UniProtKB/TrEMBL annotation:
Pfam families: Polysacc_synt. Signal peptide: none annotated. The keyword Kinase does not apply. It is found in: Cell membrane. GO terms for cellular component: plasma membrane. This is Polysaccharide transporter, PST family. The chain crosses the membrane at residues 21-40, 52-73, 101-120, 126-147, 154-174, 180-202, 226-251, 263-280, 301-327, 339-365, 372-391, 397-417. Keywords: Cell membrane, Membrane, Transmembrane, Transmembrane helix. It is a multi-pass membrane protein.
Amino acid sequence: MLNKKTYLYIEKLKKSSLVRNGVWLYVLQIFQTVIPLFTLPYVTRVLGVDGYGMFSIALNLILYIQVLVEYGFNLSGTRKIALSSSEEISEIYSDIQTSKIYLCILSLITIFILFIYSTYDHSQKMCLILLFFLILGVTFQQTWLFQGLQKMKFITLINVFSRLVSVVLIFIFIHDSQDVYLYCILYSSTYVISGIVSLIVVNREFGIAYHFSPLIKVWYELKDGFSLFMTSAMSKIVTGFGITVLGFFATNEDVGIYSAMQKIPYVLIMFFTPISQVLFPYISKQFSIDRSRGVKIAKNLFVILLVIMGAICFFIAIFAKILVPIIFGDDYAQGVTLIYVLLPWALISILNNVLGIQTLVACGFNKEYSKIFSVNIIVTIVLNVFFGKIYGSMGVAMATLIAESTLMICLALFIWVKRETIKGENNV
């Protein structure tokens, strides 16, 4: 039987918005992790190495454009909403949503230019066009708003619903390698459904009205979030540039194998994502109130993740030769050696989020964090092109690991140099 002190503590946890949000996001993350365990083995086998490689190249380019539309609002917008009064939220929502609409139009122009002037074959271009519907969905997704309001329940329910619809349709309609175009449409449909439902929830559940903001306010939002946009853009380049390089120097088969192998370490990052999403607005507020408390939370988070994620990476590495053929099929077995390089990359990437986002950005070092990323992106591009051209997919994997390690060193050094400022004054 629980004593009174323990009972009161549990009741306090139940009422904590931080705990509730964490639970909801982990429900979502478990769902997002379990679903690929069913769909990915099916899709990689049905589409084949060549078809899955074609899809991966197009998706990689679309995800670059996705960064443009999101523009770092998942961080800057979340932080603004978390620190704003209820009267200011509607105005911030309209300004950011209008900004995303303009960015979507710009991305459409970019796709049109790529379609006309790129050297990709017709099949690759068709995949690119069909996956653009993903961008339309992202434009109207309200993840940043729900995060700032700390209403993660809605993110979970919306995404579970949209993904379930997409998954059911994939198993019904995708049967062979000729269905790659249809798969692109169904993949995009998850984002489109999520965007539509998000708009309905924002209006009906929260009563937040949208009005088209003037260009001056759009300019202010874009200017205010530029440093975080650059960070997001460069982060995407860091994680996706390898596939881009292989798209030029390797075959669709090589791209398909590398892309499939990336999915395993990505699962680890997906498990961490809810922690990052829940803690960022919370840690940001703690830093604004008490710097020492914010530092303590970030330190504890770093140690916990190092131990837990490190152990998981070690376990996966031991059983990689068994897991890869089971998950993806025998055609992908030759990619097992890539796992041994990509797992450390995933671990370091997670820890870099704690150093960069949960520490530097949370306490106001947005521009400094962006500058560090700027240096790292040069390292990433040079290493990927050099090693990718010579050593193919293994070279790209090694380049990714080296670049991520370089970023960790730079972030750690900056935090060490600025340790007194980070722990001390409230205004940076």
